[in-house]
Amino acid sequence: MVEILFLFTFAMVLIFTGISMLGMFLAVAAGFAVMAVIGMLGVMFKLLPWLIVIALGVWFYREHKADKAHRNRMNY
Fold it and tell me: Where are its TM segments located (predicted)?
């Protein structure tokens, strides 16, 4: 929501300062691209602890499964 308000304000400032419509559209598109990338990085950092927990859980599960399979082969 904040990003959309920023883009609207950015566009209005460009209009009031005398930038052409083409320049305004290009500037808003560039601002959108930069804010989208920064937003994705923010979401990635917000989810990073959960991704680490999931990766550790998968690793422990695979290690436990491999250890159990190794023990079963030794019994035969």
Answer: 5-26, 32-61
- On whether the CB atoms of residues 7 and 28 are closer than 8 A, the answer is yes
Q: How far is CA 66 from CA 10, 19, 55, in A?
A: 56, 64, 16
What average pLDDT score do residues 7-23 get?
80
To the question of pTM greater than 0.85 for the whole model, the response is no
Q: Is 57 left (phi over 0), alpha (psi -120 to 50) or beta?
A: alpha
CA 52, CA 47: separation in Å to the nearest integer? Answer: 9
- Given CA atoms 62, 67, 73, 76 in this order, what sign does their dihedral have? negative
